[in-house]
Amino acid sequence: MTDVRGPVPSLAAVTRDTVPPVGPVVFELAKTSVYYGDFRAVRDVTLDVRKGQITALIGPSGCGKTTLLRALNRMHDLIAGVRVEGALRYHGDDLYGPGVDPVVVRRLIGMVFQRPNPFPKSIYDNVAFGPRLAKLAVNMDDCVEHSLKKAALWDEVKDRLKSSATQLSGGQQQRLCIARALAAEPEVILMDEPCSALDPVATLRIEDLMQELQADYTIVIVTHNMQQAARVSDMTAFFTAEVDADADRRAGVLVEFDRTEKIFTNPSDPRTESYVSGRFG
User: Who has the most CB within 10 Å: 52, 92, 204, 212?
Assistant: First the structure.
């Protein structure tokens, strides 16, 4: 999907008016950095993600948004040479501490990727995959139905659960991937540009779904679509890339983190204002 940035006034018109009551801190980042070998891709990020809110990570390409997002559920463990430094706590516990099982982390902190990635299995087996892998003590039929309902897909697929998931449309496949994540009983859902490959109608359905899900889940989303961030999120973190004096290479840095309404209508940093108004990036 083409990026839609638009000027500040149009974004202000779609920014959410209210923020849910402030919940407890879910993620606490303090001078968190992510390295690929000797290269520091994200530098000294400090912010809190709170329960029940949708937090958007925005900024130009190459500023480390996805790198940081993947650090939140230890996806980088699967890549040789990647390490996280500084504090990154989940409910007060060191997410990278000794004895922390990354498999459990990824069940509690689910991930939805940029492009729909259904398994080459039936719709039913896609949703049941997580609970089976985690050996959850659930009634599988009920779990599949409940997850598909929460992902607003049940009515469209209930009569063809044994059909291949690859036969679904792109928007349906993405909602199936959300249902698959929900079936594993997570607390947090990470979304990496979940609408970038979808048409405008499917995008709006995913946005509506995110706002429905936030009653039960904490959501962190990476998006290049400024209007989407303004529509769905409660808090927004703006990142940019700056030259790291220590390595003479560009690293992602957090410029500003605040209520979404403030980020888009009255940002504190001129770099934020330049980006959301479309003057750079």
Answer: 52
